[in-house]
Automatic annotation (TrEMBL):
The keyword Transit peptide does not apply. This is Helicase C-terminal domain-containing protein. Residues 574-696 form the Helicase XPB/Ssl2 N-terminal domain. It comes from Streptomyces yunnanensis. Residues 449-486, 519-538, 775-794 are annotated as: Disordered. The keyword Translocase does not apply. Keywords: ATP-binding, Helicase, Hydrolase, Nucleotide-binding. Residues 802-864 form the WYL domain. GO terms for molecular function: helicase activity. InterPro entries: WYL_dom, XPB/Ssl2_N. Residues 449-458, 466-485, 775-788 have a biased composition (Low complexity).
Length: 872
């Protein structure tokens, strides 16, 4: 049974409600792998180094500062002592208001336990956050007097007491306690410093906010010797000294941090725009995104570039793709990775491996625009592949390639979700500068990079004294200044803002209405419950989890429904002009766009697309099997303006010459009913490379392939047509090349996946049941001739006869018993069961541990013990 005041973390966990335990498991999902057998195992796992490091890294700035203050506070630490460390002697209203939330967040994550009068930081967290020479604390504090004087001779300690005006003691322990008491006494410490030389006070000021270490020579100056004599500087090595923690706290007026940050940075200055304008701008960009991906698929319709031996796309092919998409190489890498994440492009896996569109791309192209957008966004939200790192070097100095390996960055989905969540907190149509978002993100998840090892600052004399102390290692204690943007999380946030604008999730920097729908709603279940409001389950800092692929798909579908009315309606007509161009005043319906792309070349894009008709483009349409009459009818049907006479002449002229020459395979031959035309070709110097010779008045033979012969004659201005062995004209409609069925790349999670509600409820029940089995009171067992005395914590041991008799008695009395059980894999466990029947060498019972009815072989039960009357 637990006591009123928990003595261990496990005992405190037993006092939590099921919702409180679920909040802990949700915030720290690594504790669930595998599910702990009881609360003692849960507490032990929560104190392991790997788990604590992960939990500490997910704290916000003020919760982290609170944990750092607890690490330098007495253990256990009363709440008033912690408040004094955070707010200082003068107090701070903002700190006082925010501190309960920070303590509750630490307690909810099992980093702090105990009542307010005995707050305890878990041992592993204390070891991580306590200052040491090898691992400085962001507080800038050094060791305590007791730690710094370890190994110092008793005589030297007594000399320090005498110089400080304290009476001598009989042992080093009391001497250290007396010196500590002096440094902690504000009045006596102030009186001592009033007698200090000005140079000595300047030395203390330089070491005040850290690093607290300095170097001295063998013959220190008088002002340094004054500090050494009174213990204000204590030895920290052969020629190094340190400012003890208690003295530094007095000089800081009791503050553990130079600049506590109880309140997150404000998202300002804010720029307000008309929400409708923002939505329209986002919708326009969403349509552009669809057109860009569609153009990429069309560019690779017959097969894309080859795959590098190490994987990915070559720099040259990336440049070609960027030119084809009329964009920059970084943005081309984004569109490639987006299409790859959506399963639209992949490698074909052949011997001469190359990239191509997948069969899924055909299905995607047939979807309505808003559904195609939903598919892209659903792939983008949980993606861990990060196109922003393309071109940078990996750990071995090799450049990272688009579509290649090593592009996964696990924090990407979480950062992406946080950026969109911050934008959603702003009023509709409102945007803020990128810098404000980055500052808020850094406050919510401060980076805790290890400080580089440096030599202690010099404190030698003369002439300079100690060097200026370096600034604290975290932004929390540093002076206000530019927020660093060279860390991974800041770059991920910057890329998220760019990508969200490209996809039409945001418009003019503000989150669009359909973009807000991409976040979880209050009706979502599972890990979306990001805060607990139970009395013992306060909001957990850092509990915001990214969307799973299933959640991303569901939210993208909801967002697409809002986006659909904003997308432009496809048109079924163009405007033909006399200069052999056609203007599409908006997006065209797919059949019209595909047919027009064959008949004409795209000259410019934008709000209106301009197509230009050329002899080559008309010949391309004729090669695809269209006749001149069909082309004329197609233009007449789909143009709101009459077909210009120059365009009609162009089509008729190309059609009249098209197919007059026929090219087939001999190696290759050319035949024509007009022998004069063949003579003209033979006399043309440009035909020398084709190596033609006359076989008959109407037939020429060539020593080149038919494809080369066709291209050569077309380059000379002719319009040849290919024919089959039977003499029929071949329709030059190229078939699309597709890869075999491919699955989209799977995101690489940042640690264990967040548990859903079903798993949390099952895990809490299992832990509660296992804890009941482990802690239930048993009736005292007595040793017999065949059994040894029971060992505390060991499995029960009884003979087969005793086990059978006890089980049969439990069936008759309907009472629960405690058993030891070894499964088929040899794993031993202890369980609390309520036997229902015993027959055939098996016992059927309700297992309180697994909360189900199970059957156990009697020969696998190591022993049985009756429970105390009030155990269950």
């Amino acid at each position: 049974m637990t006591t009123a005041t928990p003595r261990t973390l496990a005992e405190e966990l037993r006092t939590r409600s099921d919702r409180g335990l679920a909040g802990l498991l949700r915030a720290r999902p690594d504790l669930l792998n595998p599910v702990p057998g009881d609360l003692t195992q849960l507490a032990t796992r929560a104190g392991t180094r790997a788990s604590v490091v992960r939990a500490v890294e997910r704290l916000d700035t003020f919760a982290l500062q609170t944990a750092e203050a607890l690490a330098i506070a007495p253990d256990p630490c009363p709440y008033p002592t912690l408040a004094a460390l955070m707010a200082g002697d003068a107090g701070n209203a903002a700190v006082a208001a925010a501190l309960p939330r920070a303590v509750a967040a630490l307690r909810a994550q099992a980093l702090v336990w105990g009542p307010d009068d005995r707050l305890r930081l878990v041992r592993t967290a204390r070891e991580l956050l306590t200052p040491s020479p090898a691992r400085p604390s962001p507080t800038g504090l050094g060791p305590t007097v007791a730690e710094a004087t370890t190994g110092m001779s008793p005589g030297r300690i007594q000399e320090i007491l005498a110089a400080a005006g304290l009476p001598a003691t009989h042992d080093p322990v009391s001497a250290v306690a007396a010196l500590t008491g002096l440094f902690c006494d504000r009045a006596r410490m102030a009186a001592l410093l009033d007698t200090a030389p000005a140079e000595a006070v300047a030395v203390l000021d330089k070491l005040l906010w850290g690093p607290p270490y300095g170097a001295v020579t063998d013959r220190p100056a008088a002002h340094l010797q004054w500090l050494l004599d009174r213990g204000l500087l204590l030895p920290a090595g052969a020629r190094n000294v340190v400012l003890p923690r208690e003295a530094a706290l007095h000089l800081r007026a009791g503050r553990a941090h130079r600049a506590p940050e109880p309140v997150p940075p404000a998202l300002d200055p804010a720029t307000a725009r008309d929400p409708q304008l923002v939505d329209n701008a986002a919708a326009s960009q969403a349509f552009t995104a669809l057109a860009t991906v569609e153009e990429l698929l069309k560019e690779w319709d017959l097969g894309g570039p080859p795959v590098l031996r190490a994987g990915g796309l070559s720099v040259r092919d990336l440049k070609r793709t960027a030119v084809a998409l009329d964009t920059t190489e970084p943005l081309a890498a984004f569109w490639l990775e987006l299409a790859h994440a959506a399963g639209l492009i992949a490698s074909d896996g052949e011997a001469d491996e190359r990239y191509a569109a997948t069969p899924a791309a055909e299905d995607w192209l047939q979807l309505p625009d808003h559904q195609r957008w939903a598919a892209l966004v659903a792939a983008w939200l949980p993606a861990t592949r990060t196109p922003g790192v393309v071109g940078t070097a990996d750990a071995k100095g090799r450049a990272l390639a688009a579509l290649g390996p090593h592009l996964d960055r696990s924090p990407a989905p979480e950062v992406r979700h946080r950026v969109l969540t911050l934008l959603a907190t702003l009023p509709p149509g409102t945007s803020v500068p990128e810098r404000a978002l980055l500052s808020r993100l850094r406050w919510e998840r401060p980076l805790r990079a290890a400080a580089p090892a440096t030599q202690p600052p010099a404190a030698s004399s003369p002439p300079q004294g100690p060097a200026q102390a370096a600034p604290p290692s975290t932004a929390a204690d540093g002076a206000a200044g530019p927020a660093p943007t060279d860390d991974l999380r800041s770059r991920l946030a910057q890329w998220t803002l760019i990508e969200a604008e490209l996809l039409g999730v945001t418009g003019r920097g503000a989150l669009a209405a359909h973009g807000r729908t991409l976040l979880r709603t209050t009706g979502d279940t599972g890990p979306s419950a990001e805060t607990d409001t139970d009395a013992d389950a306060s909001p957990i800092a850092g509990a915001l989890t990214p969307l799973t692929p299933a959640e991303a798909t569901a939210t993208a579908v909801r967002a697409a429904a809002l986006l659909a009315p904003l997308l432009p309606e496809p048109l079924d007509h163009v405007l033909l002009q006399a200069d052999l161009t056609a203007v599409a005043p908006g997006p065209l319906r797919r059949p019209l766009a595909e047919a027009l792309a064959v008949l004409a070349d795209i000259e410019s894009k934008g709000g209106a697309t301009v197509y230009r008709f050329t002899p080559a483009s008309v010949r391309r349409a004729l090669d695809a099997g269209r006749s001149a009459a069909e082309l004329q009818e197609f233009l007449t049907t789909h143009s709101r303006t009459p077909v210009p006479q120059p365009l009609a002449y162009l089509i008729d002229d190309v059609a009249r010459r098209h197919g007059q020459l026929r090219v087939g395979a001999a190696s290759a031959y050319v035949r024509c009913d007009d022998d004069a035309l063949l003579s003209e070709i033979l006399a043309d110097r440009r035909a020398a490379a084709l190596r033609l010779r006359r076989l008959a008045p109407t037939v020429l033979a060539a020593q080149s392939a038919p494809e080369q012969l066709l291209d050569g004659l077309r380059a000379m201005g002719y319009a040849p047509a290919a024919e089959s062995a039977a003499g029929d004209v071949l329709v030059a409609r190229a078939d699309s090349y597709r890869t075999p069925p491919r699955t989209a790349p799977t995101p690489v999670p940042d640690g264990p996946p967040p548990p859903d509600r079903t798993l949390l409820e099952a895990a809490v029940r299992a832990i509660r049941a296992g804890d009941l089995a482990a802690t239930a009171a048993r009736k005292p067992a007595t040793a017999t001739a065949d059994t040894a005395p029971p060992t505390p914590g060991a499995l029960p041991r009884t003979t087969s006869a005793e086990t059978l008799a006890t089980m049969q008695a439990a069936v008759l009395t309907s009472s629960p018993v405690w058993i030891g059980y070894v499964n088929a894999d040899g794993a031993a466990s202890q369980r609390v069961i309520a036997p229902v029947r015993v027959e055939g060498g098996y016992v059927t019972a309700y297992d309180h541990t697994s909360d189900e009815v199970r059957t156990y072989p009697l020969h696998r039960i190591t022993g049985v013990s009756e429970l105390a009357d009030d155990a269950v």
